Amino acid sequence: MAPPPAPAGAGSPADLVAVAGELALLLERETALVADMKIAEIAPLQADKVRLTRRFEALLKAHAGNVSQPVKAQWQAAGKRLAAAAHANERALRVGRIATERLIAAIISAVRKSRRPPMAYSGRRAAPCQPRVAGVAINQRL
After folding, report:
1. Cα angle: 4, vertex 17, 94; to 5 degrees
2. Do the Cβ atoms of 82 and 23 come closer than 8 Å?
3. How many structural domains compose the chain?
4. Is this prediction's pTM over 0.90?
């Protein structure tokens, strides 16, 4: 029994290959921007990434099992490229997040150390001793 036809407006199986290629290209670009620490340039890509991801999901759902052999071979190649791009992107974003968290922790630690008053020389952690003048008497008789 043949699979049901794709819904109207769902695009063709070839569109699935094209969108997978576009999405892989976008992920590769985002990964390069993360590696180059061009964080400000990543935000504008997010709307396209969401749009392409939704389009890809809709096409995949519409054409699952309804792809000819020539398109299937193209899809397999595009799928491998997309999977590799997604993996590299996820790894770069994870490394970038970890590096950012470590940088923030180092900054917080430095600020805390700079605000901490020096500790008095004692066996326990005590507040620093402030010099106190209880009173001074000078004997002027000699």
Report:
1. 115
2. yes
3. 1
4. no
